[in-house]
Amino acid sequence: MLATAPASGPWTPSFGPWTILAAPAEPFGVEIHGVHGEQPAPADYLHDVLLAPAHREAMLAWIDRVGLVVCLDVRTAHPSYQDVRGRSSRGRLSQGEYYHHDGCSGPTKPRVVEIRCPHQAIERRVATAVAPFPDTVYAMLRALPASIAGLPEIAGHRARLSDDGGLPRETWDTVQGVVTRAVRRELDAESARAYFRDVDAVVRAYRAPWRMGESRLIANANPGVTMQHRRAYLEPHEGGRPSGHLVKRWPAEVLE
Ligand SMILES: [Fe+2]
What is d(CA 32, CA 170) in angstroms, rounded to the nearest whole number? Predict the structure, then answer.
C-alpha cells in the first residue's frame, strides 16, 4: 500500500515542496515509488529531489537508519555510475557472491552503496541479496553443513553462538572471513551457492528481483546497523543465459 506519509516513522526526512510516495519494503527497508508536489515530478527524482544538495545529508542519515532505501523507476543519466565488475564461473565461487561490505579491503568503507539496474533491453536475472550485519555472520554459522561446522577453526564460534546468542563485535569480520574461506575451500561453486541461499533464508535477506530503473541505497558504514550484500544466484548457475547489467557508486563520497 502506498502512503503519502512515508512508511518508516519519525525519522523520515522532509524534502521541501516534495512528498515522497513510500511503502515498507519486504522483509525490511523502504521502497520509494516517486515524489509528488505542485510541480510535475522530475523523472530523475533521485538526484533532483532525494540527493539534491539541500536534502542529501538527511537522505543519507535516513539510509543509515533504515538500512535499505529502494527507489523505483529512476530515470537518470548521471555520470557517476560505474559498471559492476565481476563474473561468476561454474567452477569457483567468485568474490561478489559472498556477503561483504563494500570497501572492506581498503582503508575506508563508503557510507552508502548504491547499486542500480539501468533501463536496458535485457532483464537482470541475477539477484542481489541485502541483509543486516552481523546477522549475516550468525546465519552463515548456523547454515553450515555438518562437515564444515565441525572444523576446528569453526566449531568454537558455533558453540559460542549457541551459548551466548552472540559473538563480540571485534570478532565479526574475522569469523566471517574464516567461514567464507572454509566454504570456498570445501564446497564447489554450486554447493556454495546453495549454501548461501540457505544463509539468505536464515537471515531473511532482501532479495527482490531487479526492476529496470531501480536504485538500491544500502547502508554500508555508520556507527549503527549496517548491511552487507552479495550477488545471489537464486537457481543453479548454468551460464550462457544473458542477464542485464548493474551499475554502482558510493553516493556520499562521489556526489559534490
Ligand atoms: Fe559489493
Answer: 35
In the reported structure, the alpha carbon of residue 50 is separated from the centroid of ligand 1 by a whole-number distance in angstroms of 23
Residue position matching grid coordinates 571485534:
170
Q: Which residues of 76-86 are buried (b: 16+ CB within 10 A; e: fewer)?
A: bebebbeeeee
Cell of 232: 545471489
Residue 71, helix vs strand vs coil:
strand
Q: 193 CA distance to ligand 1 centroid (A)?
A: 17
Superfamily of domain 3-133+203-254: Clavaminate synthase-like (3.60.130.10)
Of 116, 46, 108, 103, give the one whose Cα is nearest residue 228.
103
pTM beyond 0.70: the answer is yes
Distance 177 CA to ligand 1 centre (A): 15
Q: Please say whether the beta carbons of 227 and 68 come within 8 A.
A: yes
pLDDT digits (tens, 9 = 90+) for 4-13: 444 556 678 8
Using H for helix, E for strand and C for coil, what is the string for 149-212?
HCCHHHHHHHHHHHHHCCCCHHHHHHHHHHHHHHHHHHCCHHHHHHHHHHHHHHHCCECCCCCC
